[in-house]
Amino acid sequence: MKKEIVLLLCLLAIACCTVLQAQVVVNVYVSPSGSNTGSGSSTASPVSLARARTLVKSTANKANVCRVWLMDGVYSTFSLDTTDSRLATAPVTYSAVNPKKAIFSPITPINPADLQSIPDSIKDRIVDSVAKTKVKQVSLAAYNLSNMNPWPKLFGYPVNITATTSTRLQWPKIYQNTTPLPMAQYPNNDVMRMKSVVTNGAANSVPGGSFKYRDDRAKYWKQAIKDGLWLRGNWRVDWQMDFVKTDSVSLKDSIIYQTIGVQLGIGNKYTRPAGNGKEPYVAVNLVEEIDTVGEWSINFNTKMLYIYPPDSGTLNMSSNSSTPSLKLDRVNNTHFEGILFDGGAGDGIRLNKCNNIQIAGNEIAHVAGYGVFVADGTNCTIRSNDLHDLGEGGVFIINSNFTNDQKNLVPCNHKVVNNHIYNYANDVFLYAAAIDTRSAIGTYSAFNTIHGCEHVGVLFGGNNNVFEYNDISDVVKTYTDMGAFYTSEAMTERGNIIRHNYIHAMGYKGSGLYADNSASGQQYNNNISAQCLLGSQNNFGYFNTFNSNIYFDNSMAHHTNATNKVPDTSAANTNFTRLKTLYNSSAAYRAAYPDLAKFFPTLDSSYASQMWPQLSGNVFLGTSLGGSCIRSIVDNSLFNTNGTTKLAYSKTIPFTQYGLICPDNFLAKKTLLVSAQPSLMDSLKNISLFTKTINNNWHISRIGLHKDSIYRPDVTTTQTHGIVPNFALKVTSKHGFVAKDTLTISVTIKNPNMSKSYSSVLLYDNQAKTNIPFVLKTAKFDSIVLSAQWNNPPVGTHSVTAHLFDSTIWEFASDSFAFSIGTPLPLSILQFSARSVNCAAQLDGQFTPDEALPQNIFLERSIFNGPFEAVFAINPEASNHSFSIRLPQENPTALYRVKFFDGLKVGYSQTLAVSTLCSNKESLAISPNPVILGKEAQVQYTMGSNQQPLHRSLALLDASGKIVLTQSLTLHEGLNRINLQLGSHLKPGVYTLRLSQSSLTAQLMVVNK
After folding, report:
1. pLDDT in tens, 931-952
2. Which end of the chain has fewer CB atoms at under 10 Å, N or C?
3. What is the pTM of this model?
């Protein structure tokens, strides 16, 4: 028995040692100039990145948690492979010591000595007279650059991308420091347009098409045609772009002849053969057209760079598109945090067959490819990063063996959450998305903010991918027939869920939710689709649901291309045949999509069938172009006068002609009869549209970027406008905030679905959580009222706030309420009153006559909720302990209280407010000051007595004197309070508030936080 006990104790000791060993953290400090020897155990003796890699994967450290700390400086590229993989219990984290100060930048400087004067033969070709004297040349032959082959006669976009290849044509990138400089083109910021087609040409025909031009700029391009003149254009449709080499130009006839034909020939698709006379194109990479500082062109035959060099900074270049800043190949359990990946001709970060990788809190910018490219692998998370100014898209996720994975529906479980992705697709203009999952299964993309793209927002396909709570705006700016969310063609790619997303500020060009070319089996539910050409559209797809969405201020809410015809089930329909083959061959697929049971082998095409696209339980506002919220369906036929749907009619024309199921929708108004609000979301909240959708389980406060205590601690400037709940906090005192007091704290919180979209509400005092519980008093759909009782709060200054929590991530706080609790004195104040008398504050009071008065009694005043300050020493009448004080009050409103001090203890009376009314005096003030950007301020204007109501305007001017906000007012005698909402278009700074027909002004400071 003793032996057994000893053995057990030994085993426990070993287990404890194992636990302790697992908790060991090995820190390695790295510098760009670090040593190739040593341990790197401190910032005083850092090692190189290569040395750190060796240390981390050594036998001694393989089982330990490791942190590699990257000190400030510029690193080149970094690669890890399967030999660097870690155990889940012993991950390694590469983290910047100072966020964004450790920089990976795979660029090469251009030697200033290599900038040479251009010969006269080149100078004579440059059109701009100033550029002739500024342009320099650099021979790139000695730089050993990649992607320097002469361009082919024809290439373009979209490109075909696999896990390892891309059909995109690459060329070097030129930088000023790490900011990309533009390749020369004409026009710089516009396009030329064809006049008419002469010959259309056909795919790869020789010669290609020809057309008459409007702009005669070609007269300067004689030599360029000999060297190689490429025109980039949308020759046929917006969603196809080709670079085409020019064969010749007839200046006499104003005709350009192309060397090779583009797919289906040139000329607008809908007005063949002559085209529509609007087809856009530009000339690219011409030395003739260098006219702006930083512009450049490369002669790929002579390997000569021509550039108008900037006056400052370092000229750099990058050409190897196959080398990302960070490359991980078959690596597990490795994290990268707080690093800046800046510049490069390839992707920023590339993961291949990796598992449990976390890319968090980084900035990825100015790369020519994708910000992050993820091929295969599982459970990789792209979290809380800023990805911007990208040549292609933001995050690309692909399964290299997609066909097999789709058959078994194997999820990769990659996540893209809380990222800010903007200003992307700057080089590859078409089909380069912020997030792309066209060949992925089981990804999750949520809480991202996406904006700034000429074409698509999110491209999806694959299976069982979820997109929720994303904020997408300002995309599809130029190239149309595209969406904020877009999928196309494959009927096998289904089960994707697009819900609770906020689509807005689309410029009425693209669609919000777009299922194109028979894309089927997708769910688009509980989204807000606003300011689009079409809020949503379904082009021939089946099993698509568009339910409980809010369509707001679109040109038209929804468009369905006819799906009334029985699907083509013949062998010739490869789309249908692929779906049928996959369904019949895969038990996993059949189990995942049981709705297909009535699609194969027999077809249920009744009105009740799930086969048809569903448009149910939606709300339409301001989405009725030509009397149709739903294209080709007359509103008056579909909707009752109260906005509800005529169910009987929905089963006729919408179904029989378009195969559309559209019950239970609600038409709020045909036109926008809504006053302007600080944001579109505020407009929606103020008119209570969220109650009208069938599924009204909204969580508005989750949309867009959220606070991340580790990687994104502040979202003040990036948070989606209008999602924050509205708070009304009130604190009342039973005895005027004196000791032995009882306080009641009540808070009203408003947001759509507020009663079901919060986890808890907690009381904080002086920024610390208290144990004082809130009790829910009332709950409605869009508001909750809670109350807390605070007995005997401690003496001192307090600042209380109510904090609302939604799940574990989202936290919102009310404005604070400040008060002070004093120590009780052996003195009672019988009465204390305050009123306004002729622009002054009249304060009267009396203490208990039979009590001894302390020596120090003061009247204190607070302006604009600021600190209380002593303004008068009170000497009560000896006979009855009373006092009467009149103080001039310049400010329209002030708070007053009496303070007693007997040498040991401090006490206070209740606090009273005085609003001055002046007979012949007016005043203008604003509070709080400073005010937080996006918050509401209150303007206080006092008008003299004996005046009639006045109609005036209030103007807010920036530092340059420009009016940035105006508001019309009707003013009355006495104190007027005007709420002033400071919109997101303002910037931090000092502003001037000015009242028309008056000399009154006030200064306002606006801050970010």
Report:
1. 777 777 878 777 765 556 777 7
2. N
3. 0.83
